[in-house]
Design goal:
single chain, 111 residues, alpha+beta, Arc Repressor Mutant, subunit A, 3-stranded antiparallel beta sheet, 5 helices, 3 strands, 13% strand, elongated
Length: 111
């Protein structure tokens, strides 16, 4: 059984690469076969497959078999987990920035 921390590590590792982030953006539009996903990139189908494997391992992408055709689809659950983790820090930084804004406004008003 994989822990929540290990899942998040895999998601953030997968998202750390711009090609993988672009593949996620491509799959957000519609499911696609590996060779379709590889076309816009200056890399081989094999290289794109390796990126897709990292995305699959992180739970961000699933491969679905339809007869002889295999398509990749976005699996947004892992992104939701990462967003939930980030949300806790978003609240912290928002309150820090609100405090800074109040401080700057007070200084501008001579307080």
């Amino acid at each position: 059984m994989i822990s929540e921390d290990e899942r998040l590590d895999a998601v953030f590792h997968a998202l750390s690469n711009r090609t993988r982030r672009q593949l996620i953006a491509d799959l957000k539009v519609k499911p696609a076969r590996v060779n379709e996903l590889a076309r816009p990139y200056a890399m081989s189908v094999n290289a794109i497959s390796k990126h897709l494997f990292v995305l699959e391992k992180a739970g961000l992408v699933e491969r679905r078999q339809d007869g002889a055709t295999q398509s990749c689809v976005l699996a947004p659950g892992a992104l939701a987990d990462a967003d939930q983790w980030i949300a806790g820090y978003r609240q912290y930084w928002t309150s820090q920035l609100d405090g800074l804004a109040q401080f700057v406004e007070a200084k501008e008003n001579g307080q």
